[in-house]
Amino acid sequence: MNNSLLRRLTSYIVPAISFCLYTGTCQAADAVVDDLSPKIFQVTTAETRPNDAVLVRGEYLDKITEIKVYRLNDDNVDTELPGYVPMPLEDGLLDHNGTDRRMKYATTGNGQSVDLIQQGNQSVKFIIPKALEEGVYSVEITGEKKHKSNFYVNVPKVNWVISEEGLKVTAGDYLRIQGKNLLRSGGKGQVALIPVGKRQVVKVKVATYYDDFSVSVNVPGNLTPGEYHLYYHNGLGGKTAWSEPLRVTVVNKSADWWGTSVFNVKDYGAKGDGVHNETAAFRAALNAAEQKGSGIVYVPRGRYMLTGELILSPNVILKGEAKEVTQLFWNPLNWDTNEMPASLISETHHFGVKDLNIWASRAWGVILTTGPLNEQGNVVLENILLRQSAQVSGMLYQVKPNRDVVDAELHSRWSKTGIVLRGENLKIRNCIFNSSGMYTFYAATGFIQNCRFERNTTGVNQPYMLVHPKGLIYEDCYKQGDGYGYASSIDESRNLYEARNSIPLTIPMTGNV
After folding, report:
1. Which residue segment(s) compose the domain that 211 sits in?
2. Which residues of 135-170 are buried (b: 16+ CB within 10 A; e: fewer)?
3. Are residues 277 and 425 in the same domain?
4. C-alpha to C-alpha distance for 402 and 399, rounded to whole angstroms
5. % of the chain with per-residue pLDDT over 70
């Protein structure tokens, strides 16, 4: 069914359904409202101040005869059950995720009539009266036959949430809430959580405001796991100005999946002197952790030369003493042309690398998720200093034929070079990356925070970063400005919050996508 036909069917059906919900008495759609009365599909949802324009989209908007704007009172809601008024929804039924907390729209005073600007069949604009205070506005639209439609402006909207357990609410831990209109002057935001099918309410005040698109709350530790509806109030508009409900899952905080067992590589023969080949010792420690089922493969301070790939196991983390004193480096002359390993460090899921300095000369992939796509995810990269160079050695790379060979070698599998991670619960924090290859995050859920992404150029003009978000917070990072992008695939591109990132020759980016 095409969008135009769906919109027309929705425009006939939705008024009747809405009438049933409000009155409890169902009648035929044509008995409730004329089919040619204005139908609203979408309105401005970003912060709107006095003297700002509001865009309304829909059908038969040329039939509008009057628009009135009311500024709602900021009544205290600390002791009130949450109540909400659903926003218009394009190509869908009104309030499709609704609950019994839906309320009839409110107005305050007589309202102010406003001019209709650029009015047409499918859109109209109006200006919020300059004399009104900032706040939540109730808008009343009247059609030719006195049919009225209403919606709110500046009401909060919650799109998604995320915690250390992924796209879930974690009892006893922080919760990041992502949406719009979350921050207003006075800082009175709060969250209400109501178990599905029940009426008891747990309310939590906002602990940290990042901006209008992201806030954080501390979830009580005694919250019972299960399914809940989450509502948000930004402190303005009174008891009907809560966000529409978002259904969320509450879980208990889980223990670190790598456990507490430690496997020191020096106990398996590693020297850390920068001379001996340590590959066998590292693999022996990794194998011991695999046999245990989980563990920390610990690398004390020193320089460790490796000549082969390290394949980790689920629930295993490779951890150094600190990135300032523990270095792993791969001998760049160990592989013939086009015979480099696909990745130096890899696993499918539940693995990590922490507190290491990694020098990956002449390598394709450095850290990759491998295996079945639907199993990839749950990766931790923290406190890493990583450099990937395509060069064989400084002197050899100065010879143009040699340089051309290694550049072509890397270019031959560009999309699988560098760091390529996929899946849910990616946690990449406090790292410095300087890579000849790509930084690629497919279908990514999780956090990329306080990192620096630089490109160690090879002379190949290719993009160096691709981000395909499915619920990703990407903030407080530096990323080199040449050649990065976001996925165009609808299936792998939603719910991205990018803020306070520094990009050379551009301005910091903030917002939700």
Report:
1. 157-252
2. bbbbbbbbbeeebebbbbbbbbbbbbbbbbbbbbbb
3. yes
4. 6
5. 79
